[in-house]
Write a structure and sequence with these properties.
Two copies of one chain form a homodimer.
Chain A (H helix, E strand, L loop, with lengths): L4 H22 L6 H7 L7 H4 L3 H26 L4 H9 L2 H5 L6 H12 L4 H18 L9 H24 L3 H15 L3
Chain A binds a DNA duplex through helix 1 and helix 3.
Chain lengths: 193, 193
DNA sequence: ATTATCTATAGATCTATAGATAATGC
DNA sequence: ATTATCTATAGATCTATAGATAATGC
């Protein structure tokens, strides 16, 4: 029954990884500890050897998801800084992202959950949001006479807000054409030709 | 024990009204039927005389909240069409709205819940979102050479997306200054002087 | 000997229903 | 007589814990 210390650490990581996916897909209350553990290939009771509570797992799952999300953005910056902004916006505002919340933006998938019931996860969201704004700010074009530092930050914040809102709206409706129109309209607005 | 037919209808409305508030505040899974009924001044068992299931109440509560929200926007248009756009945006992007989700924007408060577990409520969201886009489109300034009909619709969609996203982000973090900066930045972006 | 995991279960909570109650409405 | 509401509870589910088990690591 027992596994090696190394394997136990891997099991813990897998629980966090599974939780980061399933909390985004089903919400904090939409998945139970028993089901989470089954998805990680372990039994219910084993959970409490790794975490003090389900709430604790939620905090780690948020940190994990937020870090992965930021890493994805940073990878785009590293591979092609000039095209990073359109690359981030294009890949965010897609039907693929809309239909796969489990691997997508934590703010769009869990922001409301975190706001209403998970005070412990809010510091992680605060830090990640700050970093996302800073990253976007650095990618915005210098701009014309209006391109002050303050204006660029304002634009970075508005860009991310429009992305998150577009995703929340696109997911909440059941008309495929309107849903795509939302994603495409915000894409066109944020990336004028 | 029994009340008049008229009073029963009022009781039903009160249940929907309470649910529209509490589902936005606590989420669909965050409040139970017993607590909802207690908040409406009734007992648990009486619920099923009015609704077939909790899910059915969710659908009615969404319709109710969405209608109230649209009515608020239309009242602003009726009272002063010229100032309606800034009035809507200004009142949306406030700390007051952020801190009182129970009476606020249904998309920002329940959009994620509806997306993941309430297919029955999605038609209402679809219709309301369509109407909100149309209303905003009519309020946008004619604009310069770029003010085509298509461009105005794109801008209406982007405006609402930015508002919803700003609210979701502002609620998910625990830094008051950053939270206000998000609301103010999106406000400034949407309403340039 | 230690400990990661498992089985089993306690205790709480949640949706929904059954049957009783008492006031309304014909 | 009808029916809106109430009391009580069935049945399911969920978090967390207790104690057993067996492989690891000193």
């Amino acid at each position: 029954m027992k596994v090696s210390r190394e394997q136990a650490a891997l099991n813990r990581e897998r629980i966090v990884d599974v939780a980061a996916r399933l909390f985004r897909e089903k919400g904090y209350d939409g998945i139970g500890v028993a089901d989470l553990m089954k998805n990680a290939g372990l039994t219910h009771g084993g959970f409490y050897g790794h975490f003090a509570s389900k709430e604790d797992l939620m905090i780690e799952a948020c940190q994990h998801a937020l870090n992965k999300s930021l890493e994805g953005w940073r990878a785009k910056v590293a591979s092609d800084p000039q095209r990073a902004l359109p690359a981030i916006i294009d890949s965010y505002l897609t039907a693929r992202h809309r239909d796969q919340p489990g691997g997508g933006c934590p703010a769009a998938a869990m922001g409301t959950d975190v706001a209403r019931m998970s005070p412990g996860a809010r510091p992680a969201f605060t830090q990640a949001t700050r970093q996302q704004f800073a990253l976007l700010e650095g990618l915005l074009p210098e701009g014309g006479p209006d391109g002050t530092q303050e204006r660029r930050r304002q634009q970075a914040i508005s860009t991310f807000a429009a992305m998150v809102g577009a995703m929340v709206l696109a997911r909440s409706i059941d008309d495929e054409a309107l849903s795509m129109e939302i994603l495409d309209a915000v894409k066109a607005q944020l990336l004028p030709e």
